């Protein structure tokens, strides 16, 4: 992708991207910058964040210089601190991209008492999106929320309590990841319903099987399976194309609440389309975060 960023379709628009230091996030950041976006890069590590910012500047020197904000999205207090900083610094937000995600090698419980995948992959986007809605509303019709989900949602289910999600007798790190990806789709559908009259849209996507570092901390079995799948895996640049597509989609309202693969609307599991599950997920999320009521 090569576009004159000075005249790109995202010129004058502010785009916030979590998980921007590597993989799909960094590839998406480069693509969005080439289209003229003013990027807010959210990373956990300062050193890797600065490297990502430099890589984006090098890829798109004519684009506005990206901003870098640091936060550990597994910690709710950090997500709130990040939200406070964004609300204080920026008058509007055109696109919010919830990309950050983890797949650890074992079940890990955070300091807040939540399973790590659930905390990072779902509760963090839930808090951040709800907290930043005033900035999305300030951007007006066409503002959008994009969340990176996965085909792994097909075997996901939503446990009712934090204790059940962290129970090694009922879950593994991979099933916890699948559950969080189901939550991403249910969240998107719930958000689309709640924001229907605001002009803000919500979309989610499957990036494909990707040659990224997501799998580097997973179990030996998953790493072995991914090694076998490498010939069929796509590059981070190609995986990021659906993110970029949704960020620039002219008729975003027509695709509100949908799940995308390869830039097209795709089928979801019966659980992901279940209205009762959509409402139940929102209620559980409100109870566990204190936002979104």
UniProtKB/TrEMBL annotation:
Spell out the protein name for this chain.
Answer: Short-chain dehydrogenase
The terms under GO molecular function for this entry are: oxidoreductase activity
Q: Which PANTHER family match?
A: PHOSPHATIDYLINOSITOL-GLYCAN BIOSYNTHESIS CLASS F PROTEIN (PTHR43157:SF31), PHOSPHATIDYLINOSITOL-GLYCAN BIOSYNTHESIS CLASS F PROTEIN-RELATED (PTHR43157)
- Give the InterPro entries listed for this entry: NAD(P)-bd_dom_sf (IPR036291), SDR_fam (IPR002347)
Query: One Pfam family this chain carries?
Result: adh_short
Which species does this protein come from?
Hymenobacter edaphi
Q: Which family does it belong to?
A: Belongs to the short-chain dehydrogenases/reductases (SDR) family.
Q: Which UniProt keywords apply?
A: Oxidoreductase
Superkingdom, taxonomy of origin: Bacteria
């Amino acid at each position: 992708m090569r576009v004159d960023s000075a005249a790109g379709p995202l010129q004058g628009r502010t785009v916030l991207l979590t998980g921007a230091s590597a993989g799909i996030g960094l590839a998406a950041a480069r693509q969005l910058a080439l289209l003229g976006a003013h990027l807010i890069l959210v990373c956990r590590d300062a050193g890797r964040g600065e490297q990502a910012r430099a890589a984006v500047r090098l890829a798109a020197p004519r684009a506005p210089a990206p901003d870098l904000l640091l936060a550990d999205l597994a910690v709710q207090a950090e997500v709130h601190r990040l939200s406070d900083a964004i609300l204080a610094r920026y008058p509007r937000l055109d696109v919010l991209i919830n990309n950050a995600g983890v797949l650890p090698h074992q079940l890990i419980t955070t300091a807040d008492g939540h399973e790590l995948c659930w905390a990072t992959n779902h509760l963090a986007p839930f808090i951040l999106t709800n907290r930043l809605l005033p900035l999305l509303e300030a951007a007006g019709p066409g503002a959008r929320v994009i969340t990176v989900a996965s085909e792994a949602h097909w075997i996901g289910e939503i446990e009712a309590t934090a204790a059940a999600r962290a129970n090694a007798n009922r879950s593994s790190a991979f099933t916890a990841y699948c559950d969080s990806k189901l939550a991403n789709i249910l969240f998107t559908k719930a958000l689309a319903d709640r924001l229907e009259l605001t002009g803000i849209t919500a979309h989610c996507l499957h990036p494909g099987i990707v040659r990224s570092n997501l799998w580097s901390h997973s179990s030996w079995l998953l790493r072995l399976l991914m090694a076998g799948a490498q010939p069929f895996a796509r590059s981070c640049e190609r995986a990021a194309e659906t993110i970029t597509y949704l960020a620039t989609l002219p008729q975003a309202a027509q695709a509100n609440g949908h799940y995308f693969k390869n830039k097209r609307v795709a089928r979801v599991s019966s659980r992901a389309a279940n209205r009762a599950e959509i409402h139940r997920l929102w209620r559980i999320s409100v109870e566990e975060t204190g936002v979104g009521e």
